[in-house]
Amino acid sequence: MTNLVVHDLHKRFGGLQVLKGVEFEINGAELIGLIGPNGAGKTTLTNILDGAIKPNSGTVYLNGVRIDQLAPYQVAKVGLGRTFQVTRSFRRMTVLENLYVPAMALDRGYSKARIAEKAMEILEFLTIDHLRNEYAQALSGGQQKLLELGRLLMHDPEVIILDEPFAGVHPSLMEIIYNYINRVNESGKAIILISHQMDSIFTLCKRLLVLNGGVLIADGPPDEVKRDPTVIEAYLGTDEDEDMHHDAQASQA
């Protein structure tokens, strides 16, 4: 069973303290929302989890392996992967070729035949197998998001961080991406979902982590979190998140 333990993370950039003692634990295939106003520390936390930056203090363990001092490719080998808010496909390669890259880069010991087979299985799972010979640069925003999810699934991570998977996605594809996130979660993957779209967070997630000013101010079921006075106060006056404020007020009424 997946076990991710984040303990007492602190991160400074010069004199700015960005994370202040953040800690939480994920056990099993949880689908968790990570939210907070701009500047809350979400990106910094994500970058520590995937190895892009190192904490000043604190630890992160995945299934008993300490990962907070590893490079991103080493973190990926241990079993944690992420997507990015701005997709990072190889635009002049085909969809199928994009999926080959992570499998070869991480050297899971797959034969070329198995890599090709696995890539087609994932494209069929995401129902974009008809696009396999299209260049990535020709895909729509939503198709780019699905391609990035497909590339992530090629190295079979146990923990997946999805950074704004609905940003720039046409409304007609939103429900499709919802369904794939649920299916990936139901296949046994733990997912941390970062989104400013509160509807998607409340629809998909059974647990929310709320960051504000580098501090984890709430951790619990959505219905409890959105009624938490500390969370409501953190979101007051932030136009981009006024849906959260309205939902919280409605829950208190």
Describe the structure.
With 253 residues, this protein is α/β, with parallel strands linked by helices. The protein has a single domain (3-252), classed as P-loop containing nucleotide triphosphate hydrolases (Rossmann fold). It contains ten helices and ten strands. The protein has helices at residues 42-49, 72-78, 95-106, 112-125, 141-154, 171-186, 198-204, 222-225, 229-235, 242-252; strands at residues 3-13, 16-27, 31-35, 57-62, 65-66, 80-82, 159-163, 190-194, 207-212, 215-220. The strands form two sheets. The protein has a six-stranded mixed β-sheet with strand order 6-7-8-3-9-10, with helices on both faces. A four-stranded antiparallel β-sheet has the order 2-1-4-5, with helices on one face. Helix 6 (171-186) links the parallel strand 7 (159-163) and strand 8. Helix 3 (95-106) packs across helix 4, helix 3 (95-106) packs parallel to helix 5 (141-154) and helix 4 packs across helix 5. 42% of the residues are buried.
Keywords:
four-stranded antiparallel sheet, Rossmann fold, single chain, alpha/beta, globular, 253 residues
Outline of the structure:
By secondary structure, this protein is of the alpha/beta class.
Helix content: 25-40%
Q: By helix and strand content, what is the structural category? A: alpha/beta
Helix-strand sequence: EEEHEEHEHHHEHEHEEHHH
Shape verdict: globular
Q: Which CATH architecture would you pick?
A: 3-Layer(aba) Sandwich
CATH topology: Rossmann fold
Q: What is the CATH superfamily label?
A: P-loop containing nucleotide triphosphate hydrolases
Q: Whole-Å distance between the termini?
A: 40 Å
Radius of gyration: 18 Å
Q: How is the biggest beta sheet arranged?
A: 6 strands, mixed
Order of the strands making up the biggest sheet: 6-7-8-3-9-10
Mean pLDDT: 88
Strand content: 15-25%
CATH top level label: Alpha Beta
Number of helices: 10
Number of domains: 1
What does the oligomeric state look like here? single chain
